[in-house]
Amino acid sequence: MASLKRIFFGKHSFINQRNSIYSLIQQNGMSQYPSYYIQPVYRKEAQEELEKSGEIMKITHVPTRAALNDQTSSVYQDELVNLFINYVMRDGLKTLARGLVEKSFENIKRIQLEKYHKAKTEAEKQAIEINPKNIFHQAVNNCKPLLYLTPIKRGGVKYQVPVPIPDKRSQFLSMKWLIEAAREKERTVHFPEKLAYELIDAASNTGKVVKRKLDLHKQCEANRAYAHYRWS
Amino acid sequence: MLRSLRLKRLLQFNGKTLYNVSRLLRSEPTKLTTVESENESEAKLEKKSMSKAMKAYLERAQAHDEFMKQQNYEFQIGKRHLANMMGENPETFTQDDVDRAIEYLFPSGLYEKRARPIMKPPEEVFPKRKAAEFDETGRPHHFLFYTGKSNYFNLLYDIVEHINNLNKYEDSMLNKNSYPDPNTKLQLDGYQWMDKEALENVLIEKIIDKEYTNFVNAIERLYNHPYSYRIKEFILKYRKPLMSQKSTSDLPKLQYDSDGRSYVTVYECLRKRARGHVTIRAPGSGIISINGKDLMYFEDTQPREQVIFPLIFTKMLNKVDVEAYVEGGGPSGQAGAIRWGISWGLRSFVDDKIIESMRIAGLLTRDYRTRERKKPGQAGARRKFTWKKR
């Protein structure tokens, strides 16, 4: 009876809980840091959260890696924007990429402010979002697909099978599509301008990128007959 | 002479012989002269029954003892020579002095520290050896002798024994309807298991990687038991801290200039190919000077952000003045070097709690990552040439 109780209450007796940061076998290839070094928590708010949940006690004796050179605790820092800058970047020209994204944010601000001043009633003015960062977040969120098609081979024939998409992948696709849409333009239009338009459109759930997402959803819907190939 | 020597050797190593001799002595206490002859026959008998393994072991042990003696003697002589060479007193010449002298007399640029010339006492250089594992009849002392790695398997055995005992204890507690308190659970975060080499030194046995993982799995299981705090000492024997607290809490002392302002200078601020030194003065008004210019020394936003990162993080932006000199490398590396210098120096001006949060933010860790070299036969560090069949 007692041993039965243990099986029910003492999880430890058959589940080996191994903490990944203590894994001693070096699995990090050429990394300069030993494997038990943890990622830095460089934002003040994130640290306060850790403190509230009491998890900070766990890392008091664990060494941290150095913060990367695009990470700061500044209020202007945004992880998603940083990621977006990295996706825009080509051939390691980070300064250029950052400049382009900042320029497009400036354009968004100008466009929205213009709209704001043209609006007549107070209610209309309230409805207009002016903060480019919020618009950006909204746009990325609106363009995230829920499903995507993956080729699976059954009986020598490749079927496009709809499968649920991991969050990280859908975020990547959303940003990639936004950038692709912004690069499809006439030679006279500059990238930041086009990106600003695309972001504003996507934030209001219209435009090329949202259409692309809906197309993908439609295709998934059309291929729903193959969905069972995912597991059989 | 020979007889007494043999007797002595027999008396040396075990209780059984001793017991025999004493019994003999007890039975014939008066005939002291005959005792010796009796003893000899007894010794012969014993010798016959002594196993070949034991004999070989004794020979090896003796040879090793002599070898160590010789090594020790040579080490002492060498130390005296070294002291004389360095013009110091050989009587008070310590191991630290020896190390320093060797480093001075045999400068070595070899990257691997263990490949550089050393002079250590022979006990450290030559590995420890196990004592006799069997008696003179060849019977092993240890019940796990035939596993070949008795100490290692004994350790595993102990771990399992502990797990079983704790399970029994848990059962008895569950019968009393009391459940383990999660707050009393053993918390050893910031420690890691002893590495393979250290474990081998403790066990005096060579173990293979698989055996080491088995050990880690077993002891991890013991550690995760809710009642593992009951055998904390046993677990702690095989754990070592991940990080020495000394490095971040070792603060440089504040100095004072002619105006009475306190300042700290951090030398050797390194990152990538950049190096520099940073001086922080308090109280200040937030003046930042880099190579004589202000923050505009950097043309891009990112390095500027990096320079002020520690200052905003500790909310010291307008309370201190920073003076930095950097050379070498590019803007990113220079900014990184200054960032590290400022955070390292700021420790003297803020309290312990902020130092700890700076450490968690990754500001106090020196970033050792550098450009990876290009490899021959490849287009770059990792990139390969385009593959062509022929």
Short key terms for the protein model shown above:
heterodimer; A: 232 residues; mainly alpha; two-stranded antiparallel ribbon; 9 helices; 7% strand; globular; B: 390 residues; alpha+beta; 4 domains; 5-stranded mixed β-sheet; two-stranded antiparallel sheet; 14 helices; 48% helix; 9% strand; extended; disordered N terminus
Report on the architecture of this protein.
The complex is a heterodimer of chains A (232) and B (390). Chain A has 232 residues and is mostly helical. Chain A has nine helices and two strands. Chain A has a domain at 1-74. Chain A has helices at 2-9, 44-53, 79-88, 94-118, 122-127, 132-142, 167-183, 191-203, 208-222, and strands spanning 147-154, 157-164. A two-stranded antiparallel sheet of chain A has the order 1-2. Chain A is globular. With 390 residues, chain B is α+β, with helices and mostly antiparallel strands. Chain B has helices spanning 2-13, 15-27, 32-49, 52-85, 95-105, 122-125, 150-175, 196-203, 209-223, 232-236, 246-249, 301-313, 331-346, 352-360, and strands at residues 191-193, 239-241, 255-256, 262-271, 274-282, 288-290, 321-327. In chain B, the strands form two sheets. A five-stranded mixed β-sheet of chain B has the order 3-4-5-7-6. In chain B, strands 1-2 form a two-stranded antiparallel ribbon. Chain B is extended and about 90 Å long. The interface between A and B is large, with 46 and 54 residues. Chain B: Belongs to the universal ribosomal protein uS9 family. Chain B: Residues 371-390 are annotated as: Disordered. Chain B: One of its GO terms (biological process) is translation. Chain B: Keywords: Mitochondrion, Ribonucleoprotein, Ribosomal protein, Transit peptide.
